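Usage

Read records sequentially. Each one opens with the input sequence:
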Amino acid sequence: MRSVAPPEATAPDPVDARLAARLAELRARHGWSLGELADRSGVSRSTLSRAERAEISPTAAVLNRLCHVYGRTLSQLLSEVEAEPAPVVRAADQPVWQDRASGFVRRSVSPPHAGLRGELVEGRLAPGADLAYDRPPVAGLEQHIWVLDGALEVTVQETAHRLESGDCLRMRVWGPTRFRSTGTARARYLLAVVRP
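and closes with the structure output:
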């Protein structure tokens, strides 16, 4: 009697692997168990688990159900995983956005990647600039503010923190925040943002 060798395990297609990681990240971002997602989507728990481990390539019907639950189109989901983002973004290529009215300049330092939770941002506030936010873009956002130059006052939940060059503040943002440049020179700081 001949023995039959087990089929060799093959590595998943790179796009399927990125799709699997993105699906797992979306579920984690919502804080849902596989069972909760199965109840919401009508897709079996085992199919969801295998799709998140890249053991199967989900069908269009399964992806459509998941897109509905996550509030995005299939095109949006697929665009998030089509190509592996560049791991390096050169200083000259880092996007800079300026709010002239408030004296705020924001440089996106981190290479963009939809599947990652953290990013680095360089902020610059002109002397005397005052920037207030009525709420965070995502509730429970974790932020680390490291002042590189100048002086900065950061108000979180009615508590003001005065920061000088080299000081670092860590906070979770649930409500309004305010950033004020309190020195005679501009304030420059590094903001590390981590989504919950």
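Summary fields computed downstream for this record:
- The mean pLDDT is 86.
- The radius of gyration is 22 Å.
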